[in-house]
């Protein structure tokens, strides 16, 4: 049995990398739905359907827990899967299975509060001084998940999400650094103009963006804290598996990389991030439909 890690493409490798450091003995199966990437410009229904298929593929490959290493899938599909599909699906399996997202640990990191904490609304005017800028896909921005969940907990934080249409796809395709840098600079500037100033903190709210986090660093004012998802997610998932021992995630340290797209090696950008060659295998063709 194993821990499954799912993304529309290679962005989730940023989360996978941190999960492996936190749980080195566990067996991991990474699935990139490269046949359907990018998810960020798709409709909600498509994202739900594709995420469901990805989870099924991972469960059938032996995963007990699936981490949606994708903000778009976590924001748009996770709740629907948990409410409508997962309980029925569980009946077909003899072993306990579950799907977890990456937004909860990110909100906890941004607010400094546990997820269960909801602020008391006193009705008094609060000066919102702490501006958090979220860089995300169009679908994540449309969901307003970061605005809604942070506002429930910390009314002194104002959240502005910048939809970076096309950026995840450029990263997925291994675009050159100059084009990526120009694109990221444009989004940082667009957020600044909309807010009236640079954000006090930034969330890289798409796992692909972690692969070029240094370019966000370069274009944000020096010293702006960036909330990186991989360490928060890895800590939360590590704590979760310690508390929920019913999920068997293996113990032989096996690593499997699957794609619904073209198998083989990935772009230079991905290899530079990963630090060594990385080969993806094809999922069986009936599953890639
Ligand atoms: N890496 C994903 C995310 O975190 C998806 C990007 C995409 O497919 O558009 O949002």
Your description of this structure?
This protein is of the alpha/beta class. It has 2 domains: 2-104 and 230-288, Rossmann fold, CATH 3.40.50; 114-228, Rossmann fold (3-Layer(aba) Sandwich), CATH 3.40.50. The protein has helices spanning 13-22, 44-60, 71-76, 78-91, 103-111, 138-143, 145-153, 167-172, 177-195, 213-219, 229-243, 268-274, and strands spanning 2-7, 28-32, 63-68, 98-100, 130-136, 157-163, 201-204, 226-227, 255-259, 264-265, 279-282. Strand 1, helix 1 and strand 2 form a beta-alpha-beta unit. Helix 1 packs across helix 11 (229-243) and helix 5 packs across helix 7. The protein binds D-glutamic acid. The site of D-glutamic acid has 17 residues, from helix 3.
Quick recap of the structure?
With 289 residues, the protein is of the alpha/beta class. Helices cover 43% and strands 18% of the residues.
